[in-house]
Amino acid sequence: MRQIVLDTETTGLEYKLGHRVIEIGCVELMGRKLTNRRFHHYLNPERTIEAGAHSVHGLTNEFLQDKPKFSEIAEEFRDFVRGAELIIHNATFDLGFLNNELGLLGMEQLGSLCESVVDTLKLARELRPGRKNSLDALCSEYAIDNSGRQLHGALLDAELLAEVYLAMTRGQENLIMDLDMALVVETHLLPAGERPALRVLRATAEELVDHECVLAEIVKESKGKCVWLAESLQG
């Protein structure tokens, strides 16, 4: 599978208020491995950058003045992401801005260009309910060196996010591969038309403890309003 890990920087928080993309950074994954292919551009937004946004990424109007406009790199960007699965942290934000830029040029949206989208913020919240799930927090959780990240930068953040995504999903990938391989072997050894017996994978003691910790965090976040608690009391 071809995946593109993507990040943007912008002039402000709301494209609906006329804010624009000023940096796009993308890195490519093939078969869950980073390739050397990257897409990176600073862009002239043809408008000023808000002070709050500048404090996040440090980009200035003067620096961007001689950079290309989005319209000048749009086709190159579309060719790079076409047909891939996009991996984005807080995907709603980046997709909103990029689809707005494409829409201003009368071009098709990313939903039509790309295979699918993985929102790593949503994924992280499912894996780590009730905890901070910023990119910095996830780098710390998965022991990924982000010491060079003094300010936000689209390409650097895309590179870090690629490592975070691989770390977050590595166990799932190994489990799927192991199960698929076992199924292939068992099916191959059976007579034609027969199916292998259902395998039951039981949790280890350590996994059961981790599971109880996650449930406790969910109970805390929901202030005790959990379906399984209600059912246990009724029973």
Describe this structure as you would to a colleague.
By secondary structure, the chain is an alpha/beta fold. The chain has two domains: 2-170, Ribonuclease H-like superfamily/Ribonuclease H (Nucleotidyltransferase, domain 5, 2-Layer Sandwich); 205-234. Helices cover 50% and strands 16% of the residues. It has helices at residues 51-57, 61-64, 70-81, 91-104, 110-113, 120-127, 135-141, 154-189, 205-221, 227-234, and strands at 2-10, 21-30, 33-42, 85-88, 116-119. It has a five-stranded mixed β-sheet with strand order 3-2-1-4-5.
Summarize this, please?
This protein has 235 residues and is of the alpha/beta class. The chain is built from ten helices and five strands. The longest helix is centred in the C-terminal third of the chain and has 36 residues, at 154-189.
Give the topology string: H per helix, E per strand. EEEHHHEHHEHHHHH
Rg value: 22 Å
Strand order in space, largest sheet: 3-2-1-4-5
Query: Distance N terminus to C terminus?
Result: 46 Å
CATH architecture of the largest domain: 2-Layer Sandwich
Number of helices: 10
Largest sheet: 5 strands, mixed
The helix content, as a percent range, equals 40-55%
* Tally of separate domains: 2
What CATH first level of the largest domain would be assigned?
Alpha Beta
- Ranges with pLDDT <50 over ≥5 residues? 175-188
CATH homologous superfamily descriptor of the largest domain: Ribonuclease H-like superfamily/Ribonuclease H
Number of E strands: 5
CATH topology of the largest domain, by name, is Nucleotidyltransferase, domain 5
| Classification by helices and strands | alpha/beta
Strand content bin: 15-25%
- pLDDT averaged residue by residue: 85
Shape: globular
